[in-house]
């Protein structure tokens, strides 16, 4: 396992359960390494502009030539929390509801999407939420 993979595994570690379920926390936040993202001398309070901040540690998060809109412009906080979340991977909502927060349009291949959804699959099971090499970011 590479160092980056080890960091990612730690980053997605579960928080202790408080009875409300499990979630995730950002590794630098959990380790109280605030200066990894924050700089009190900057007006924004961040080491880089908000749209560039996540790419400091996650430069290769977008794989392929196609990028999901928020990821392409560094709007990671559209889907993720910065410090901690009640959901895995710092997501703002559960997997089954996250994408529908923005994607209200009629699904292409509607019958297929309804079938896989009814079998307990989620958008992210087939689509990479950050981007990919093919249209619709298919895995």
Give structural notes.
With 139 residues, this protein is mainly α. The model is unreliable at 11-20 (pLDDT under 50). A two-stranded antiparallel sheet has the order 1-3. Strands 2-4 form a two-stranded antiparallel ribbon. 8% of the residues are buried. Helix content is 30%, strand content 6%.
In terms of structural class, how would the helical and strand content be classed? mainly alpha
Parts with pLDDT < 50 across at least 5 consecutive residues: 11-20
Average pLDDT works out at 87
**Strand-residue fraction?**
5-15%
| Rg, nearest Å | 17 Å
Coarse morphology: elongated
Distance between the termini: 22 Å
Helix content: 25-40%
H/E series, N to C? HEHHEHEHHHE
Strand order of the largest sheet: 1-3
The helix count comes to: 7
What is the number of strand segments?
4
What is the strand and helix layout of this fold?
Blueprint: H1 3-11, E1 24-25, H2 27-30, H3 50-57, E2 66-67, H4 69-72, E3 84-85, H5 95-98, H6 110-118, H7 123-126, E4 131-132
Q: What's this, in brief?
A:
With 139 residues, the protein is mainly alpha-helical.
């Amino acid at each position: 396992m590479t160092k980056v993979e080890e960091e990612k595994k730690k980053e997605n570690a579960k928080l202790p359960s408080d009875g409300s379920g499990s979630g995730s926390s950002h590794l630098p936040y959990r380790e109280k390494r605030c200066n990894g993202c924050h700089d009190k001398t900057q007006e924004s309070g961040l080491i880089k502009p908000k749209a560039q901040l996540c790419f400091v540690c996650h430069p290769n998060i977008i794989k392929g030539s196609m990028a999901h809109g928020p990821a392409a412009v560094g709007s990671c906080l559209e889907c993720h929390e910065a410090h901690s979340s009640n959901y895995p991977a710092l997501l703002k909502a559960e997997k089954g509801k996250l994408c529908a927060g923005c994607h209200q349009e009629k699904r292409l291949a509607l019958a297929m999407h309804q079938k896989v959804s009814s079998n307990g699959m989620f958008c992210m099971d087939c689509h990479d939420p950050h981007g990919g090499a093919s249209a619709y970011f298919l895995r």
